[in-house]
Amino acid sequence: MKLLSDIIFLKRLVLLTIVSIPAFASSGFSSTQQVIPQVDTTKRAGVKTGIKSNPSDTAGTSDKIEYSAKDSTKVDKKGGIVYLYGRARVVYQGLELDADYIMFNSKTNQIFASGKYDTKGKYVGRPIFKMPGQGSSLADSLRYNTKTGAGKIYQVFTEQEGGFFSGGIAKKQPDDEIHSKGQTYSTCNLPHPHFGIHITKGIVTKNQIITGPVYLKIEDIPLPIGLPFAFFPKPNKKSSGIILPSPGEDYTRGFFLRDGGYYFGLSDYWDAKLIGSIYTGGSYDLNLFSTYTKRYKYSGNVQLSYSSIVTGSEGTKSFGRQKPFAINWTHSQNANANPGSTFSASVNIRTSSYNSLTAAGNTYDPGQLSQNILGSSVSYSKQLFGGLFSLSTSARINQDIAQKTIDLTLPDVSLNMTRSIFPFASQTSTGDQKWYEKISVGYSMTSSNSVRSSDSLLFKKETLRKFSNGMRHNIPIQMNFNVADHFNFSTNVNYTETWHFQTIRKTYFKATGGGSDLTRIDTVPGFNRYGTYNVGGSVSTKIYSLAQFTKMGNLKAIRHVMTPSIGFSYAPDFSTLSKGNYLMSRYADGTPVPNPQYNPNNPINGVQEFQTYARQEGMLYGGPPSGRSANISFGIQNNVEAKVAVPNDTTGKGEKKVPIINNLSITSSYNFLAPRYNLSNFNISGSTPFTPKFQVNYSAILDPYYIQQGVDPLTKATTFTRTNTYTWQRGKLPGLRSFSLSFDYSLNPEALKKKNLNQQELKDQNIQKGMTPEQAEAMALVSRDPNAFVDFKIPWNFAFRYSFNYNTNEMGKQSRITNSLSFNGDANITPKWKVTFDSGWNFDTNSFAITRFGIYRDLHCWDMSFSWVPFGTQQSYSVDIKVKASVLQDLKLSKRKNYYTRY
Q1: How many CB atoms lie within 10 A of CB 672?
Q2: Which residues of 38-69 are buried (b: 16+ CB within 10 A; e: fewer)?
Q3: b/e sequence 721-744, b meaning 16+ C-beta within 10 Å
Q4: What are 472's strand-pairing partners?
Q5: Are 255 and 245 in contact (CB under 8 A)?
Q6: Does domain 66-236 have CATH number 2.60.450.10?
Q7: How confident is the model at residue 679 (pLDDT cuts 50, 70, 90)?
Q8: 11 or 574, higher pLDDT
Q9: In this predicted model, what pLDDT tens digit does every residue of 146-170 receive, in sequence order?
Q10: What is the C-alpha to C-alpha distance for residues 885 and 185, in angstroms, rounded to an integer?
Q11: How far is CA 760 from the centre of its chain?
């Protein structure tokens, strides 16, 4: 079976080889390939050719033969023969021929060209020939009849589209047939290739190609892999055809014929491939692949996959059949196709069992197999009214494979003003603006239609009836101005209008036997709207402080920049029953439902006597906010950097800035109208760079309220109560509710080298080298962070990433710690050998994450790769030896042992 598969691959390669033969037929020569331009070593600057061109023959098709030679020219008038020696050149009817030796017989109309052996026995000065509109070709020698157009070429070497033809003889007949014998096709660019497909003989006509035996050669050793003969049509366009399957065995599904089907060459811009796999255990796969493109407009591809997987053994309880599927679609639009509008798509939808049952579509890709969250989107945007508005529409699907849930949004529409307008600004006034001319107005609108469901119920009727939809409009009115050149003031009024197309009604039923009350929620269709507004303002400034040092070694100064800000906002209470958005919770008999948190002895705690609910509860945007708020928000941002001397600077004045703390911010707010817990949590975030390549990012949330510990008098269990007392009033620090820390780092030899040149000296050197400012900046970027750029000359590299997260509940209990550590690296053992690895540590299981080792060997025109997952549920290995060039991608030898899903 493997031999049959290799023969099939060879058949494809021979097709690629021979289809390109006619490309040279029109040249009047017997070579079999069009080539890219090569260096013509026979032409040198300053050599007098002696050729007299015909000015009126612009096409180079004159019947006059023009010739020249550097060393000597010998003419035999009696025999009608011209001999050209040393960098000889002949031009005839567009033919350009250069060689060390050329002979032309005017009586027989024969041209012969060849090279010569130098004093060291090396064959030099080979013929180089070229026809109009084609590249040049190289050969050992050639003959050509100027009258009949027939000719022979010996040991030709040409190149086209990554393939090389070498050796053998090719002959062009007067009837335009080409006869080829003993040529080798290969993607190896050496004159003596490491491997190739040897074509013993072949005939090329206008519409078809017929060959004799063809076989594969590696290091001049013929292999028993070939075809006795072949026949191919030449449609000169994409052709449809059968794709033969590959045989094999799967541990759980049995023997198989995989990836067989049909290719549809629909047009130059659209094709499709339908392939399938069948297993002796009763399972099968179907896949449809299609790519499309329209030049300067768009391009994309589509993949539809469907499988029927038999699980368990027939006759047992575990026997069953599952039908996973997957949909993939990508589409991108050329930026210049439709200025002002864009359309893009990235769709990745699959059933939750698809990856595990099909081994990620038979790819055994660890990245896909460990993926739990899938996201898909299709979006369209357009600029309106001269770019003043931007309209965006999209459809999104977020799929949680582990939870088997899907969030579907169809559609999501937004309309936004790209810039604010100043309705009171004068277009003709000069001088400073009036205060009212600084008032700006904006607008934004969002509309959405979404639902959450399990993946098995997504397209059921009951799910489609649960779509939540609505629309929200926002109009911000703002005015900015400066005071005393140091303070930035901003005032704003925001109005928000919310629309829903259904509301809810709640009905409570009293429980019997001491249980909880039951609640029935009815959805009432119909348009519903409510409006909210808030007013506010803010002020910010910057405070600079500088400490200079003279006796602190290389430390010269430390600068601290603080950016304090304070803001105020007010919003009324929109939850009063009189406004109609909130309703009283009532039992079926109409009596109000009491609020269990109500304390008649403390009626000022803000808790109502009876429960209420918003009519929009559970809808897309929910109901209006409850309770008045008068918030003062405050925060401070800090940046600290040091100025240090560069001791190796030759000018003695070199200094550089070293950041110590970046964007360390602390924010919070205080609500004057809240009945309790007026002060919100403190949010802290920032980063500290230890080196230009190593930076630690951190954030935390602190709770300012004291947690009182007590004992339940009935159960004697320990209780915790969040009091309205600040922790510092009890002599304690605020409680830590969450903390996160992350960093990543990479090492390689270039990162460990010290940079001794200061920036100014480097800039001067770049100028001396003639660099533009843009080139100098690019070089400086590489110098600052060499790891950001790939350099295969670096002998080794090691990188790792770590993140830490700590969280508790509101009472500071039920803490949870999560860690994530991953690392990877590679090393060049020799210039041709590279070793790679990637892994991580799972702190929950105290074990390694998916670990993979790889070895790569460069074999010139071939390469060898080895990949190994030594342990875990996905342990596997693969060895591949293949041709580098994509045109011969099927010429490979693979051995792999994949992990198999246990059903």
Answers
A1: 12
A2: eeeebeeeeeeeeeeeeeeeeeeebeebebbb
A3: ebeeeebeeeeeebbebbbbebbb
A4: 446, 498
A5: no
A6: yes
A7: very high
A8: 574
A9: 887 788 888 877 665 556 777 788 7
A10: 13
A11: 37
Answer whether 167's CB lies under 8 Å from 193's CB: no
Bridge partners for 293 per DSSP: 299
For the record, the structure tokens of 538 come out as 């803010």
Counts for the chain of helices (H) and strands (E), in that order: 7, 54
562: Cβ–Cβ under 8 A, 6 or more apart, which residues? Answer: 542, 543, 545, 636, 637, 638
pLDDT given for residue 700 in this prediction: 96
Q: How many CB atoms lie within 10 A of CB 766?
A: 18
Strands 612-614 and 214-218 come out as unpaired
**Mean pLDDT (whole number) for 584-608:** 81
Alpha helices in 643-754 (DSSP H): 749-752
Per-residue pLDDT tens over the stretch 414-462: 999 999 999 988 877 777 788 888 999 999 999 998 888 877 777 777 7
Write the Ramachandran bin of 361: left for phi over 0, alpha for psi from -120 to 50, otherwise beta.
left
Name the nearest CA neighbour of 709 among 811, 599, 807: 811
Whose CA is closest to 202, among 236, 239, 227, 222? 227
Contact 855, 865 (CB under 8 A): yes
Task: Tell me the HSE value of 429 on the side-chain side, using a 13 A CA sphere.
Answer: 8
Nearest-5° angle of CA 89, CA 94, CA 98? 20
Look at the block and give the residue holding tokens 């549809």: 264
Measured CA to CA, the distance from residue 732 to residue 721 in angstroms comes to 16
Q: Tell me the β-bridge partners of 848.
A: 841
What's the per-residue H, E or C state across 80-131? Answer: CEEEEEEEEEEEECCEEEEEEEEEEECCCCEEEEECEECCCCCEECCCEEEC
For residue 489, give the amino acid letter. Answer: F
Structure tokens at 641: 């950097």
CB neighbourhood size of 161 (10 A): 13
Give the tokens for residue 807.
């969280």
- Parallel, antiparallel, or unpaired: how do β-strands 298-311 and 128-130 relate? unpaired
For residue 556, what are the contacts with CB-CB under 8 A and spacing of at least 6?
A: 548, 549, 642, 643, 644, 645, 655
Q: How far apart are CA 128 and CA 101, in angstroms?
A: 11
Where do the DSSP E strands lie in 161-191?
Answer: 163-172, 178-186
Closest by CA position to 567, among listed 494, 663, 664: 494
Q: Which helix (H) or strand (E) holds 641?
A: strand 629-645
Cα 786 from Cα 747, distance rounded (Å): 10
Tell how far CA 743 is from the center of its chain. 23
CB 565 within 8 A of CB 539: yes
Domain boundaries, the chain: 66-236, 237-371
Q: Is the dihedral of CA 749, 750, 751, 757 positive or negative?
A: positive
Whether pLDDT at 717 is above 80: yes
Tokens of 844: 């929950």
Name the helix (H) or strand (E) containing 250: strand 246-250
- State the Cα–Cα distance between residues 559 and 557, nearest whole angstrom: 7
DSSP state of 438: G
DSSP letter for each residue of 698-709: EEEEEE-EEEEE
